[in-house]
Design a protein that fits this description.
CATH topology of the largest domain: Rossmann fold
CATH superfamily of the largest domain: Response regulator
Keywords: DNA-binding, Phosphoprotein, Transcription, Transcription regulation, Two-component regulatory system
Protein name: PhoB family transcriptional regulator
Largest sheet: 5 strands, parallel
Strand order of the largest sheet: 2-1-3-4-5
Radius of gyration: 18 Å
Number of helices: 8
Shape: elongated
Strand content: 15-25%
Structural class: alpha/beta
GO molecular function, one term: transcription cis-regulatory region binding
Oligomer: single chain
């Protein structure tokens, strides 16, 4: 039986999700604060975590960030009534796998849960060899990136975006393709989120006096060229 943790302070809403998920055969645990959510998420094993963004005690984005800092790859879906691009980027940048705005149909939530579980299962393939480009080195085995031997501090999504671009060197990837490859085809984010993350990456890996590692192909997308 798949185990799902719900971290939600609105009791009626949490109970609604709990009953629907139990009806679908999931084992469900509900907690109502950010601190309790973090402790429960890191103490036990879960197949997915539904995490409200606005929680008492600790913001949901911070909870997610600390879950990732603890080394856990458990799929996390952020649930929130806020749906600006900035909010979506903040949620995904904290390490969330998906972002669902309230109100939503329970059928959509169930589909998102199945999707993040599938993506998590696909992520268990054997590690790849380290890839290099110019003075960048990305090691998928230990999930590190360095530039001229100096480690770079990339978020989970920045790392995955750079890995996709480096693995598809000389191939122009459209924004839609990057969404599919990095965020998953059924993740509800808009293509301009890709532009935001490319900008984040450039700020961390580029030198102002040199050509950018990631080239923009106007009207199409991005590419790393040999």
């Amino acid at each position: 039986m798949k185990r799902i943790l719900i971290v939600e302070d609105e009791r009626n809403f949490a109970r609604f999700m709990e009953l629907e998920l139990m009806h679908q055969g999931y084992a469900v645990t509900v907690v109502g604060s950010g601190q309790e959510g973090l402790e429960t998420a890191t103490r036990d094993a879960w197949d997915a975590i539904l995490l409200d963004a606005m929680l008492p005690g600790m913001h949901g984005f911070e909870v997610c960030r600390r879950i990732r800092e603890a080394g856990l790859a458990t799929p996390v879906i952020i649930l929130t009534a806020r749906y600006s691009v900035t909010d979506r980027v903040s949620g995904l940048d904290s390490g969330a796998d998906d972002y669902l705005s309230k109100p939503f149909a329970i059928e959509e939530l169930l589909a998102r849960i199945r999707a993040v579980m599938r993506r998590s299962k696909r992520g268990t393939v054997e590690p790849q060899e380290a890839v290099t480009y110019r003075d960048l080195r990305l090691d998928p085995v230990i999930r590190t990136v360095s530039k001229a031997g100096v480690p770079l501090d990339l978020t989970k999504r920045e790392y995955e975006l750079l890995l996709v671009l480096m693995n598809h060197r000389d191939r122009v990837l459209s924004r839609d393709m990057l969404l599919d490859l990095v965020w998953g085809y059924d993740c509800e984010v808009e293509t301009n989120v890709v532009d935001v993350y490319v900008r984040y990456l450039r700020n961390k890996i580029d030198d102002p006096a040199q050509r950018s590692y990631i080239q923009t192909v106007r009207g199409i997308g991005y590419v790393i060229r040999s």
